[in-house]
Amino acid sequence: MKQIALLGMPNTGKSTLFNRISGASARVGNWPGITVDLMSAKILIGGHIANLIDLPGIYDLHGFSEDEQVVRHFLANNAIDLAIILLNSSQIDRQLSLVLQIKKLNIPTVLALNMADEAKQTGITIDVESLAKALNMPVLQISAKYGDGLPKALQAAAQIINQNLTPTDPKLISDQLQADHQIELEMDVLIQRHVQIPTTLTDNTTDKIDHILLHKWFGLPLFFLAMFLFFQFIFTIGKPLQDGLAWAFRLLRSDVLEPIFSASPAWFSGLMLDGVYNGVATVAAFVPIIVLFFLVMSMVEDSGYLSRAAFLMDTFMAKMGLDGRGFVMMLMGFGCNVPALMGTRIMRSRPMRLLTMLVIPLSLCSARLQVFIFFITALFSAQQAPIILFFLYVTSFLTMFLTALLFQGQYKNTEPFILELPPYRFPTPRQIVMRGWQEVKHFLVRASKFIILGVILVWGLTNYPSNIPPASIGTIAGQIGLLFAPILNPLGINTQLAIALIFGFVAKEIVIGALAVIYGLQGHELATQIASQIDWVQAMSFMLFTLIYTPCLSTIATLKTESKSSGFMWLSIAWSLSLAWVVSFVFYQSARALGF
Amino acid sequence: MRPLSELAIAQPAIISSIEADESLFNRLSALGFRVGKPLSIVRRANFKGPLQVRLGTTDVILRQKDAARIHVNLAE
Predict the structure, then answer these.
(1) A→B interface, C-beta within 8 Å
(2) Which of A11, A242, A398, A518 is found 20 to 30 A from A177 (Cα to Cα)?
C-alpha cells in the first residue's frame, strides 16, 4: 500500500485538511520507530488505495521538540511514497523553510498553500506556477476549511503516485538525519547521567495545600481572610515601632537640634526645623511599616500564592474583560503601581494590556498606605483602625472593578489565559530580606528625593509673605488653597488639606510631610491638631480622594512610556481625578445628609 | 477523542491534537502542551472557571475556552 505523509507547521489547518480528505475513516495507530500514536486514514487516490498519515505539526525538521523528533523518527523508519506539505500562505516567507528541508531528503512532494484568501487580503500574491517550477514540485492553492482547490491538489498527488516511483529509503533518510540523531542521543545521555527526574513528584505537599487553598468554596474566602490578616499583622507590629521612632525623632529635635539652631537666624531655623526636619521625620517614622509591608508582600509573592489568586479570581475577572493575571498585577500595585504597570508586558493583546493599565493606578500603593495610616490613627480608635484600612482596600478593588466594567467595551480582547502554577516555595529568610530590602531601598530613594524638595517648597509657599502667620489665607499656599476651594469644599476638604493634595500629585510620599510643614508640627502633635480641626467624615472623604486620584508623577510617566500614547495617559489622569471627586462628593454629602 | 475541557477530573489522557491560532499554540507549546503528551485535570474552578491541568511535572491553569482547543484521547 502507498504511504502518504501529511506535513506542515502548526496552525496551518493541517488537521482540518486531514479530516476533509479522510472523511470518517481515520483511525489511530502505532508506527515503527515512534512511541506516540498517529492518525491515519485509507484513501482512494489515482486508482490506488493509499494510507494518509497525519504527522504532528512542526516548525523545523531539525528541531528537538518532541513533535519534531516524532516526524524525524517516522521518516527514518517508514518508507513513504509522497509527502503533502501544507503551508499557511500568509506566512509563506517563514514557512517555506520546512519545504526546503523535506526537499533535501528527496521525498516526492506536493505543496499545498492554505488560506490563500487570507494572504490576498493582506496583499500577498504568490506566483504559483513559477514557484512550482523553481521548487520542481506541484504547488497548489487550496482552502482546507471550504475544500476549494482540493480536487486539483489530490489530482497532482495522484499523478505522482501513479508514476510508481520507488518509495523513500528510510535507511538513507536516517543517514541524512544522522547529525540530528547524534544530538538527540547526546541530550539523552547527558540528562540520564546528570539529571534526575522522578516519574511522579514525590513531594505532594503542594497538592495538600492546594486542596485547601484552592477549594471550590473555601478558596476565595480564605484568600480574603489571608489578605485581612496580612494588613492586621502589619498594623499590630508596625504601629508601636512607628510610635517609638516618632518619639525618638521628637527627642532629637528638642534636645539636640533646637539648641544647635538657636543661634542661627529665625527664618533659617524655621526652614530647617519646621520645614525639612518636621517633614522628613514625620515621613521617616513610617519606614518600619513600609519595611514590614514589603517583607510580607515579597514573601507572598515568592511563595507561589499569587498564581493561585489568579486561578481563584479569573472567572470573576473575565466578566470585566480582564484575566487572573490582571488580578495579580492589581495585587502587585499594592506595593507600588510602577512595577505593576511594567508587569503588564506579559499580556500580548494590547486592548487587555491597556485595560489592565487603566485599573492599576487605582490600587492602594504603599505611599498611599502611609497617608491612610496617619489619618486613621489620628481619627479612629485602635479597634476601628484595621477595619477602616480594610474598607479602603475594598474600595480600591471596587473602583478598579468599576473602571474595568465601564471601559471593557472599549478594550475588547480575546487573549488566552494560560499560566504556570508553580509549587509552593517557602522563601528563605535571606530571600525575604533581600527582596524586601530592594523594595525598601527603592522606596527610600524615591521618597527622600521627593520629600526633601517637596517640604522645602511647601515651607516656602506657606511662609511667604513672611509678615503674616504661616499657612494663613494670606500666604501663597493659602491663596492656592482658596483657588481650589470651590472644587474641594463640597468634599469637606479644607485649605490645608487641599495644599497637601496638590503636592500629592507629585508623589503621595509628600502628603504627610507637607502637612507637617503646613501646620509646623510633627508626629503626634500634628495628628492631634488635625483631629481637632476635621471630623472623621472629612478625613474619610480626604482619604477616598487620595486613594483614587492619580498616584504620582512616576506612575504617569510609566503609563505614557508603557502605552506609548499621551492620549491614554491623559485619559487615565482625567478618569482618576473625576472618579475621585465623584466618590468623595457622594460619600461626604450622603454622610452629612445622614446626620454624621 | 474529546476536548480537554470535557475531560473528567483525574482521568489520565493523552493529547491527540491542538487546534489553536499561532499565539495560543506557541504559548501552549512553551508550557509543554504537545501532541502525545500525557496529562490530567487536577481541579476545575467554580462557575465554569479555569482548569488546573497537570502535564508531567508542570501544573498549568487555563480557561475552558482555551482548553477546548486541545483534543485528548483517554489513556488506557
Answers:
(1) 10-11, 15-16, 28, 35-37, 39, 56-57, 65-67, 70, 197, 201, 207, 210, 214, 216-217, 307, 310-312, 314-315, 318, 323-324, 348, 416-423
(2) A11
Q: Rg of chain B's alpha carbons, rounded to an integer? A: 11
Mean per-residue pLDDT of chain B: 86
Residues A371-382 as b or e (16 or more Cβ within 10 Å = b): bbbbbbbbbbee
Where exactly does CATH 3.40.50.300 map onto chain A?
A: 2-190
- The size of the A-B interface in CB pairs under 8 A is 112
What ipTM was reported for this prediction? 0.91
CATH of the domain at B20: 2.30.30.90
Instruction: Name the stretches of chain A with pLDDT < 50.
Output: 198-202
Q: Which of A418, A420, A424 should we substitute to test contact with B (largest number of B Cβ atoms within 10 Å)?
A: A418
The model's pLDDT over A283-322, given as tens digits with 9 standing for 90+, comes to 777 778 778 877 887 777 778 888 888 899 888 888 888 8
Q: Could you list the beta-strand ranges (E) of A549-592.
A: none
According to DSSP, the residues that pair with B3 across neighbouring strands are B71
Q: Cα A317 to chain center, whole Å?
A: 13
Q: What class is the A2-190 domain?
A: alpha beta
Q: Is the pTM of this model over 0.80?
A: no
